[in-house]
What does this fold into?
Amino acid sequence: MDGEELGLLLKQERGQFLDFVSAYEYKKSAAQKKNSEDLARDLARLLAGMANADGGTLLVGVEPDKSVTGIPYRAEEIQALIQSPQAMLNPPLHPSCQKLSLGNLLLLKFEVSSSLEVHRVAGGRTFYRIATENPCLPAEQIQSLKESKRYFFYERQHVLDAAWEDLDSAAVAAFTDKIKDPRDPRTVLAQSYHLVDCSRDKVALTMACLLLFAKDPSRWHQRCGIDFVKYEGTERRHGSSLNVIKRIRFEAPLSRLIDEAVGRVKEHIRERTILHDLFFRERLEYPTFAWQEALVNAVAHRDYSLSGAPVEMWMFDDRIEVRSPGLPPSPVTVEQLRQQKRVHFARNPLLVRVLADLGYLQEIGEGVPRMFQEMDHHGLRAPEFSTEGFFFTVTLHNTPIYDEATLRWLNQFGASTINFRQRRLLAYAYSHAKSFSTADYQRVAEVDRDTAYREIRAMVKLGIVNPLKPKSRAYRIIERL
It folds into this structure.
């Protein structure tokens, strides 16, 4: 069984919920085992970061290339590694730890759930897992993180009158098939995902488990679905002027709710005929990734304790609004989202981990920046983020901001070449005599002088723009096409 379990883990990539740690270090191409105390500190930091975020699995004895090298320590050193999260963290952390064997090699498999507390290492540093990174949080975000942990109670509460038979066995089986875990479904949901408690005679189900897999989720949460409403025109009207064209209510376990909603909503995403390279082309009015990411985030991160309102998707002639109950949980702010900061905090970490393993949340920390890139690549306005009452809204407009010639010229520069601000400035310059100044960059990109100068110099090095004169603060774009 150890070999099969290891094989499943090694088929996966490092990410938000999985990391590999080697017991060796390489100096001058020679391998030598790490100091056991140094490795213990590394494990404590990584496990603290996972517990402070969404939980996850840590496999010790594996190289970055996934080759298995084992843990070459004495029994007392291995025991110190196992106890490192209790000994080196405050408050102590108690992840499950399993010894695995592959031939004569020993490995350790730690599993930790998202914690209700914020754990810090000796010296007071607090780590937080974001994708494959484990950054140290600044002081101002630590208090926000502590306050946000109170949201975790809702999805973790045990629903006393719920039983295993209330779950949709087909939905549970589809999930375990997806993750290719051969263990009994109850064991998988209990040990790896912390969705059920099998320690008593009667299996106790969490609210997260019922939202994800219940036969009738509305029995446990009256508005956990998605309401899609299509309006005629650009505003909502009521009474005798009611302008609703289509209304669809989606109600299903969250494990399949998103697929059902996306399948029906995409029927209402129109195609537009545009003239491109002397040929007429069809283009969807919204980039697929952008509107689906907004919908997935709304389902994954909404505040389910606000049980009287569903996720809403309003479609108008000129825009889509995806409305999610609950304001962004600190330390995430609307301003950070507008600035495309790489931020992540899961209000519902148990839900998020399952949805991620189902393939809905594959770019944790990167989804919002990519929404900006997709909208800009299609020549559309940037996503807008706003709050009203207890709703958080993402708005996507379908009105082009670039003409086709400008967009075609811009799209020769990939997202990895220039950032969003540089792209916006180039579009401005392309339609303004093919030139611009440092002051233009500050105004259009909304940055200070130092940032403007640094990002212009980067474009000069890439051969995208040239100074009009030596030491000039005016530049001309190079029309590669």
